[in-house]
Predict the structure.
Amino acid sequence: MLLFGAFESMAGEVLEKLSEAGHPELSVGNEFAMRAIDAGADSAADLGRALGVTRQAAAKTIAALEKLDYVTRTSTDADARRKPLVVTQRGREAIAIGARAFDVIYQEWRVGVGEENAAMIASALRDLGARDH
């Protein structure tokens, strides 16, 4: 519950910054999806694996992001049937705003709990996250 509360607090602040910058329709899940697409998850199946959700859930997220012009499908010369996903300029802008907001909040937390404690917490969270992969 402690981690969830901390995450919810941070996510709320990030969503507020995104809304102020003209992206009120985004959720934290949308931000994670765009980051995964930008990192190479270029299909619903790939995105589902990257996010740990079903292909159907990933497809629903993709449809919403396409409708809002955060991602688009492209064509490839190698296979006309394949339409890889790419993040649009609008999506890249939102990712950058979200990343900056997370960084600012993390720096505020570092000041609040101290550098050593912040480093220890970040390390523990990375270790816990690595166990799932």
